[in-house]
């Protein structure tokens, strides 16, 4: 798979957020960190996983817990990133960020991880076209709710590209976010097409509130999740 040669197009007001990626050459990635931990979210939660966290993001969600990845990273050859990820000898690997799809070489990296026999996850905001992503990759698409401040960036055509093995995540920061989520799931019949996950912003919605909203909705195929790593380690801990 040949990588694209240019960064994705973003709205003019967000263009300056791509500055950390300026000067990246084909075959390079800007990497914030690579580490092994447990998967904290999705239906893969609890499994050992190697995380490749790429730097830079064009969104600024109000509740973002990884702003440290916005601007800081190390330029690495894609082959070096692949070798480092494979060195952990872990069957599960995830590309996250930041926003991985901002970096063209993320696409062949995911394909190479699949070729190496890994189960590969992609955590993406959903603001960018997932069409070029290798079909073997499990996409975890984060549809942005209103209180994120970035709901207008949702790229809705992605719903027609997702596979039944992919997952859609909604991060809930308020009752307004829940009402929006319930409406979107019903309008697009998402719970009959994909695994739908709902999670509470750690310090803004109590888990019991989200449970109550979910049970009252009658959406019996929607799964609530907790950010497991924030209960195992300090919520502000990095590299976990």
Structure description:
The protein is an alpha/beta fold and 240 residues long. It has a single domain (28-232), classed as Aldolase class I (TIM Barrel, Alpha-Beta Barrel). The chain has 5 helices and 9 strands, in the order E-E-E-H-E-H-E-E-E-H-E-H-E-H. It has helices at residues 78-86, 106-115, 175-188, 207-217, 228-232; strands at residues 28-38, 48-54, 74-77, 92-96, 119-124, 138-143, 167-172, 195-200, 222-225. The longest helix is centred in the last third of the chain and has 14 residues, at 175-188. The two termini are 31 Å apart. The mean pLDDT is 94.
Alpha-carbon distance between the two ends: 31 Å
- Rough outline: globular
What is the CATH level 1 assignment?
Answer: Alpha Beta
Architecture, according to CATH? Alpha-Beta Barrel
In the CATH scheme, what's the topology name? TIM Barrel
Rg: 17 Å
**Number of extended strands:** 9
Q: SSE string, helix = H, strand = E? A: EEEHEHEEEHEHEH
Main structural class: alpha/beta
Adjacency order of strands in the biggest sheet: 3-1-2-4-5-6-7-8-9
- Our count of helices gives 5
Proportion of residues in helical segments: 10-25%
Give the total of domains. 1
Can you give the mean pLDDT?
94
Strand content: 15-25%
Largest sheet: 9 strands, mixed
CATH superfamily: Aldolase class I
Low-confidence stretches: none
């Amino acid at each position: 798979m040949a990588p694209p040669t240019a960064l994705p197009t973003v709205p003019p007001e967000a263009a300056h957020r791509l500055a950390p990626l300026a000067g990246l050459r084909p075959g390079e990635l800007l990497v914030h960190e690579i580490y092994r931990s447990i998967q904290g979210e999705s239906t893969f939660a609890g499994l050992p996983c190697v995380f490749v966290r790429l730097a830079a993001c064009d969104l600024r969600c109000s509740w973002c817990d990884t702003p440290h990845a916005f601007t800081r990273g190390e330029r690495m050859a894609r082959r070096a990133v692949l070798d480092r990820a494979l060195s952990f000898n872990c069957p599960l690997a995830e590309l996250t960020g930041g926003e991985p799809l901002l970096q063209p070489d993320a696409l062949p990296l995911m394909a190479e991880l699949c070729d190496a026999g890994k189960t590969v996850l992609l955590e993406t905001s959903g603001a960018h076209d997932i069409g070029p992503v290798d079909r073997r990759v499990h996409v975890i698409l984060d549809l942005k709710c209103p209180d994120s401040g970035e709901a207008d960036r949702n790229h809705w055509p992605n719903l027609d590209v997702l596979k039944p093995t992919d997952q859609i995540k909604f991060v809930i920061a308020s009752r307004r976010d829940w009402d929006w989520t319930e409406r979107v799931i019903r309008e697009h019949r998402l719970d009959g097409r994909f695994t739908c996950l709902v999670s509470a912003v750690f310090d803004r919605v109590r888990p019991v509130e989200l449970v109550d909203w979910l049970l009252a909705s009658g959406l019996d195929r929607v799964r609530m999740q907790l950010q497991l790593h924030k209960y195992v380690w300090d919520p502000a801990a990095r590299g976990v």
